[in-house]
Design a protein that fits this description.
Layout: H1 7-17, H2 20-24, H3 39-44, H4 77-84, H5 135-149, H6 178-192, H7 217-227, H8 232-245, H9 260-265, H10 268-275, H11 281-311, H12 327-335, H13 351-358, H14 366-376, H15 386-394, H16 404-414, H17 417-433, H18 476-479, H19 481-493
C-alpha cells in the first residue's frame, strides 16, 4: 500500500525538483539542519521529535530530492513555532538525564505565542519568570505582612506638647511674681466677685458637658474633651445625644454618668450619631473609643496587680505624698465592678504623674488635662484657654512669642497654688465681659467707655476694631456663605485636641 502524500508535500517536492542548483547550494539556516529520514517517515513528519536525539551522519551524501526534508531558505515565526511548540506534547525529557520536565512551556522561543494563548501586550524577558515558592515560605511572608499592617492595640501617645513639669520654658522671664498675681486677683475680684473651689463636686448633668466638674475622673475627661474646640451649646448637644443613646450608672462614684463600658462595646457609628451635633463627631468618636479601650486595659492590669498583692497579704493602707487615697484603696475602687470603666485610681498619683498620664490618651491635650486636674481632682492647676492666654499676654506674664501650652508651663510654676483656681475663673469671666479685654475690641466697641479695672496693667496687642465698625453689627466675613464654608473647612482641619487654639467661646464654669 502506497504512502499517501498531501498536496502541500507534493507542491514542495515539485519546487525542489525545478531548481536542483538550489538544492546543491549550501544554505544558511536559522535552525539546525534536519537529518534526512526514510520515505515513509518523511511523509508522516518532516521534523524529528524534540524528545529524540538526531542520528549523526558522516557525509551529506546526495539523495533523491523527494527523500530530502523540504527546507526553505528563510524561516517564519509560524514555522518556528510549529517546530518548537510543545503545547500538545507530553512531558518532555530534560537533557543530561535530568528526567522529565513538569513545565509544558519549556523550550518556547522568546516572544512566541502558543495556539491557545492570547497575544501579550508586553514581551516578557526570560529573566522575568518567577520560580515557585514553597507553601511554608508563602505562609511566612503573609504572616509578616499582616503583622506589619496590623496596628498595635490602643497605642499611647509619646508627645507631651512641650510640657516641662516643675520647670518654666522661660527661665529668664521674671513675670508674674507672686505679688503681681495677688494684685490682679484682688482687682478682678472687686468686679467679678470671689471665686473659690467648691467644697463638693456637683452631680453630672445630662444637658451640660462642662469642663470636669463631675465626681468621676473618666466622665470628667470625656466631657472636657467634648467641650474642646467648640462652643458650650454644641458640647451640650453632644452630651445630650449620649444621654439619649446610652444608659447611666446607677451606683458608685460615677453615679449618673454615662455607662462608658457600654459605649466602648458599641459600634463607633452609634457614638458618632450621638455626638455629631456638637461638631467634629468623626474625630472625637474615634478618639473616645480609643480612650475607653485603653482605660479597659488599664483596669484589667490594676485588677490583676491588686489580686496578686491581696494574695500576698500586702494590701495595707499607705498614705500618699499628696494626702490623697492610697494606691490600694484606689485599686479596690477599680476592682469594685469589673463591668464599669474607671480612672478613679489616678487619685493616688502625684500631680505630675496624673497630668502626664492624661496626655497619653488620644486627643487629650494640655488644657483638657489641666481642667480635669483642677475641677474634678481638686488639684491646683492653671488651665489656659483662649481668654486666659490673651490676658497673660497683655499683662506681660509671658514673652510675645509664647504659645498657649508654654504659657501654661510657665504660669504653672510662677503662679502660687492658692491663686490658680481663682485667677483661672476670673480671667475667663473678665475676658468674656470686659468691653476692653474681649477679643478684637476697639474704642467703638460696646462697653469700651466703662473702662477696665486692670487697664493700667495691660498692653493690648493684636487686631482691634476701628472707629467706623459697629459693635452690634456682625462682620461681613461671617455673613458671606463662601467665607463661612472656608472657616468651617479650616476648623475641621484642626485636630480637636485642645493643644490648638480655638476662637470659639469657652464654657463659663459658673453657669
Amino acid at each position: 500500500m502506497s504512502t499517501r502524500q498531501t498536496r502541500g508535500a507534493t507542491a514542495k517536492a515539485t519546487a525542489l525538483l525545478s531548481s536542483s542548483a538550489d538544492v546543491d547550494r549550501p544554505q544558511e539556516l536559522s535552525s539546525q539542519p534536519v537529518v534526512p529520514t526514510s520515505t515513509t517517515e518523511g511523509a508522516k513528519s518532516v521534523h524529528p521529535s524534540p524528545s529524540k536525539k538526531p542520528k549523526s551522519t558522516k557525509s551529506p551524501a546526495k539523495t533523491a530530492p523527494i527523500q530530502k526534508a523540504p527546507v526553505t531558505p528563510t524561516s517564519t515565526g509560524k514555522k518556528r513555532k510549529r517546530a518548537v511548540s510543545l503545547e500538545n506534547e507530553e512531558d518532555e525529557e530534560l537533557p543530561h538525564g535530568l528526567g522529565k520536565s513538569l513545565n509544558p512551556k519549556i523550550g518556547k522561543l522568546e516572544g512566541e505565542e502558543s495556539d491557545n494563548e492570547k497575544p501579550a501586550t508586553k514581551k516578557r524577558s526570560s529573566g522575568s519568570q518567577t520560580t515557585p515558592i514553597s507553601k511554608v515560605k508563602t505562609e511566612s511572608i503573609i504572616a509578616k505582612a499582616v503583622e506589619k499592617a496590623t496596628p498595635a492595640k490602643s497605642p499611647k501617645k509619646k508627645a507631651n506638647y512641650g510640657h516641662t513639669p516643675g520647670k518654666t520654658p522661660f527661665p529668664e522671664w521674671p513675670h508674674p511674681t507672686p505679688a503681681e498675681c495677688q494684685i490682679v486677683h484682688d482687682l478682678l475680684t472687686e468686679v467679678h466677685g470671689l471665686h473659690a473651689p467648691p467644697k463638693t463636686i456637683p452631680a453630672p448633668s445630662s444637658t451640660f458637658a462642662g469642663c470636669g466638674e463631675v465626681p468621676s475622673i473618666l466622665d470628667a475627661l470625656i466631657r472636657t474633651y467634648l467641650s474642646s474646640a467648640t462652643q458650650g451649646k454644641n458640647s451640650g448637644m453632644s452630651i445630650q445625644g449620649i444621654d439619649k443613646t446610652f444608659s447611666k450608672l446607677k451606683e458608685g462614684t460615677g453615679k449618673g454618668s454615662p455607662d462608658y463600658n457600654e459605649i466602648r462595646l458599641a459600634d463607633i457609628s452609634v457614638l458618632f450619631n450621638a455626638i455629631k451635633s456638637g461638631g467634629l463627631g468623626d474625630v472625637k468618636s474615634k478618639n473616645i473609643k480609643a480612650i475607653l479601650d485603653m482605660v479597659y486595659e488599664e483596669n484589667q492590669a490594676h485588677r490583676d496587680a491588686y489580686k496578686k498583692r491581696k494574695d500576698a497579704g500586702k494590701t495595707d493602707e499607705v498614705e500618699t505624698s499628696d494626702g490623697n487615697i492610697s494606691f490600694e484603696k484606689s485599686a479596690e475602687l477599680t476592682c469594685a465592678n469589673p463591668n464599669v470603666l474607671t480612672l478613679d485610681h489616678m487619685h493616688a498619683l502625684s500631680d505630675n504623674d496624673a497630668f502626664n498620664t492624661f496626655l497619653t490618651y488620644p486627643g487629650i491635650g494640655v488644657k483638657t488635662s489641666s481642667c480635669v486636674m483642677l475641677f474634678c481632682m481638686k488639684r491646683p492647676s492653671f488651665a489656659v484657654d483662649t481668654h486666659v492666654f490673651r490676658l497673660c499676654q497683655w499683662l506681660g506674664w509671658v514673652p510675645e512669642n509664647a504659645t498657649r501650652d508654654k504659657t501654661f508651663s510657665h504660669c504653672e510654676v510662677k503662679i502660687p497654688n492658692e491663686l490658680k483656681y481663682g485667677l483661672h475663673q476670673l480671667f475667663i469671666k473678665h475676658g468674656k465681659t470686659c468691653g476692653r479685654c474681649r477679643a478684637i475690641t476697639g474704642e467703638s466697641s460696646e462697653g469700651w467707655a466703662k473702662g477696665c479695672v486692670i487697664d493700667h496693667l495691660v498692653k493690648r496687642t493684636g487686631a482691634r476694631k476701628g472707629g467706623e465698625d459697629s459693635p452690634k453689627k456682625k462682620s461681613p466675613v461671617k455673613k458671606s456663605p463662601v467665607k463661612k464654608g472656608q472657616k468651617a473647612k479650616r476648623r475641621r482641619e484642626v485636630t480637636p485636641s485642645d493643644e490648638e487654639e480655638d476662637d470659639e467661646e469657652d464654657i463659663d464654669f459658673e453657669e
